[in-house]
């Protein structure tokens, strides 16, 4: 079985990348159990609770990240440098349980994956 990593680098609004990545992640979870999810750059905003996408006429898919454990996706990580650059902290409440990692730690983890997809 191949190890698959999903990297979310885009914010939740203004692009369909997050929604498309989440759809791909959920579909892939039916094929393999070894999935890693990484939130970096503006992708850390995908984890923010209490977003109000309806105010900008967007669909609310953010909460769907919270169901990943039901799909046996439990290797989820957030970049500490990305959080800091955006005025957020690792202790923030997120829609998903994530382990904070430095960029160097993320690079090390990504090296062990067979396939890496970025959204």
UniProtKB/TrEMBL annotation:
Keyword Cytoplasm belongs to the record: yes
InterPro entries: DsrEFH-like, Sulphur_relay_DsrE/F-like, Sulphur_relay_TusC, Sulphur_relay_TusC/DsrF
Organism superkingdom: Bacteria
A Gene Ontology molecular function term of the record: transferase activity
Keywords: Cytoplasm, Transferase, tRNA processing
Location in or out of the cell: Cytoplasm
Pfam families xref list: DsrE
Predominant location category: cytoplasm
Keyword Cytoplasm part of the UniProt annotation: yes
Coiled coil: none
NCBIfam families in alphabetical order: PRK00211.1, sulf_tusC_dsrF
Quaternary structure and partners: Heterohexamer, formed by a dimer of trimers. The hexameric TusBCD complex contains 2 copies each of TusB, TusC and TusD. The TusBCD complex interacts with TusE.
Function: Part of a sulfur-relay system required for 2-thiolation of 5-methylaminomethyl-2-thiouridine (mnm(5)s(2)U) at tRNA wobble positions.
Similarity comment: Belongs to the DsrF/TusC family.
Protein name in UniProt: Protein TusC
Organism: Rahnella laticis
